[in-house]
Design a protein that fits this description.
alpha/beta, Arc Repressor Mutant, subunit A, 14 helices, globular, transcription, ArsR/SmtB family transcription factor, HTH_ArsR_DNA-bd_dom, DNA-binding
C-alpha cells in the first residue's frame, strides 16, 4: 500500500497537470514495453514496437540495469524539448550519484554510461539521440490521442473537484483508494510505502501507457509528482488510420476482434460462424480464447450454445455505459 501524507499546506497545493508531459509519458511507455503483465492486450503492441525501435534507442536500456531508472530522468516539461532540456540541465553531482545508485549491484558498465558519469558531451548526445528515436517511434504517432485523453481526464477531475471536493477528486483518480485523516491510501502497491509531502504539494499526472501502480517522482525541494494510470486501458493506436475495430484487431487479431464486435447480441456458435464467414470449429476456438480472457460468456440451452459479451468485453469492444 502507498500512503501519501498531507499537511494542511499540502491540501492547498494539490494541482492537476494542465497538459500531458512527453518525457514521463515516453518513460511510462518504455516501462510498459518491458513489463510482463497484461500480455493479452499488450503483447502484440510490445512486439510491434520492439521490432520498430531503431538501434539508436538501444542505449536507454543501459540506464535501467536493474529495472530502476536514475532519478535525473524524472522531469516534466510541457514539450519534448523542454523535458529533454531539463534532463540535460541536471546537476553533474546528481547525475553521477544516480548512475552509481542504479549500477550499485555490480555488473559491467557500458562505456557510454562511464562517459555520462564523467559529464562528456558525446555521452549526452548519445542519450539525446536515443530519447528522440524512442519518442518518434513510440510516442509521436499517438501524441494527439494522448493530448485528447489528457483533456478529458482534466475535465473529469475539474468537475469532480468543483462538485464534490478535493477528497472525491483524488479518490476518483484511483478507484479503491481513500483519503482519511490527511492520508491518501492506495491499495494494491506491493510494499507498504509512506510518502510525506511536508508542504511541497502534489502534482497529479495521468499516464495513458502505464497500467501498473502509481509512479512517484519524489525529489528534494520539488513538488511530488504522482503519475497514475488513466485512459482506456488498451494500447493507444494512432489517429487517422482506422476505426476502433482496427485498433482492437491489432491487439486481439482480426477474427477475435470481429467476433467480439459481433456479439452486440447473444449468438449461437453457428450464428457467429455465419456472421464472421468462418467454420463452426473456427468460431468455437476463437470464442473459447475470448471466454478464457473473461471477455465473453457461454451458456448451453439444450443442444444450443449461446455466446455473449461480459461487461469487460463490452468495454473493450468500445461500448460505453
Amino acid at each position: 500500500m502507498l500512503r501519501i501524507h498531507f499537511t494542511p499546506d499540502d491540501l492547498t497545493r494539490v494541482r492537476f497537470a494542465p497538459r500531458p508531459s512527453p518525457v514521463p509519458e515516453l518513460h511510462a511507455a518504455l516501462m510498459m514495453l518491458g513489463a510482463p503483465h497484461e500480455e493479452l492486450f499488450f503483447g502484440r503492441w510490445r512486439g510491434r514496437l520492439s521490432r520498430a525501435l531503431p538501434a539508436t534507442a538501444g542505449p536507454l536500456a543501459d540506464l535501467v540495469p536493474g529495472g530502476a531508472a536514475p532519478y535525473f530522468l524524472d522531469v516534466l516539461g510541457g514539450t519534448r524539448e523542454e523535458g529533454f532540456a531539463l534532463i540535460r540541465a541536471s546537476r553533474p553531482e546528481f547525475v553521477r550519484s544516480e548512475l552509481e545508485r542504479v549500477y550499485a549491484g555490480g555488473g559491467p558498465v557500458p562505456p557510454w554510461i562511464r562517459a555520462l558519469h564523467g559529464g562528456e558531451a558525446g555521452a549526452w548526445r548519445t542519450l539525446d539521440h536515443a530519447q528522440r528515436a524512442a519518442y518518434e517511434t513510440v510516442l509521436a504517432p499517438v501524441w494527439p490521442l494522448v493530448q485528447d485523453l489528457h483533456r478529458g481526464e482534466f475535465t473529469r477531475h475539474a468537475l469532480t473537484l468543483a462538485e464534490r471536493g478535493l477528497g472525491a477528486a483524488l479518490t476518483a483518480s484511483a478507484p479503491g483508494s481513500r483519503l482519511r485523516d490527511g492520508v491518501w491510501e492506495w491499495p494494491g502497491v506491493p510494499a507498504v510505502r509512506d510518502l510525506r509531502l511536508d508542504g511541497r504539494g502534489l502534482v497529479l499526472l495521468p499516464t495513458f501507457h502505464w497500467r501498473g501502480g502509481p509512479l512517484v517522482q519524489d525529489l528534494p525541494g520539488r513538488p511530488v509528482v504522482l503519475a497514475y494510470p488513466a485512459g482506456p486501458g488498451l494500447p493507444l493506436a494512432p489517429d487517422g488510420g482506422g476505426t476502433c475495430e482496427d485498433a482492437l484487431a491489432g491487439v486481439l487479431g482480426r477474427t477475435r476482434a470481429s467476433l467480439l464486435h459481433a456479439l452486440d447480441e447473444a449468438l449461437t456458435t453457428t450464428g457467429l460462424a455465419r456472421r464472421l464467414g468462418v467454420s463452426n470449429a473456427t468460431a468455437s476456438a476463437h470464442a473459447q480464447a475470448l471466454r478464457a480472457a473473461g471477455l465473453i460468456t457461454t451458456t448451453r440451452t439444450g443442444r444450443s450454445v449461446h455466446h455473449e459479451r461480459t461487461p469487460l468485453g463490452a468495454l473493450v469492444a468500445g461500448d460505453r455505459p
